[in-house]
Amino acid sequence: MRIVSWNVNSIRAIIKKDFIESVKKMDPDILCLQETKATNTDTLNALLALNDYVTYSNSADRKGYSGTALLTKNKPLKITDSAYKVDEDQEGRLICAEFPNFYLINIYAPNAGQTLERLDYKKNWNSRFLAYLKKLDRLKPLIACGDFNVAHRPIDLKNDKSNYNKTAGYTQIEIDGMDALINANFVDSFRYFHPNEVAYTFWSYRFNARDKNIGWRIDYFLISERLINKVKSVKIHPEFYGSDHCPISLEIDL
Length: 254
Fold this sequence. Notes:
By secondary structure, this protein is of the alpha+beta class.
């Protein structure tokens, strides 16, 4: 099974940038999208060309903001979205698909804000998310993927010292949130297989950051520890454009 996760930074914008062709080339069994920035109707319409998939969308109440979508070739047993307590403010940040032998959780974690004005909100969201994963993991193993909006270690961003505790995505509070997930036996699968590889999934549109490879690794596949021996590969795909993020993929025997 191949799972692809991609923060598309507006589904209506990326659809005009060879997105459909990119997805067909990657040929995932499940595709998780974040930051769709569209209503459920607009998202579903934008994805009509991917008719091999069953598509689910969870848009934010606020128009043009946040949002997630999940496309799967095999219909899940059940879909849960922001009605659950993790995303109390209905920002479209979560879709959980239950399959016979695992859960797949697609998330778009909150950004702490340009002046860190949402850092407390992010801290509380992380706590609710951790509790949610623990609850699910007691029932069956899980894969949580998406844009976590945090660089976990200095290797995961280009300029770690100048950003530490100053920039959203690299504050100690956010690092602690990721530590809590790892300590709860959820494995950062890319770092497990590539412990020393410098690779990024996000580059600012400013200052030609992508051309200069001034980036951040903030997109993850976290998996239950008992699934790690089933993982075949975890990859980052900077060759695909259209967003300020690139897709990431996980191949696993399930």
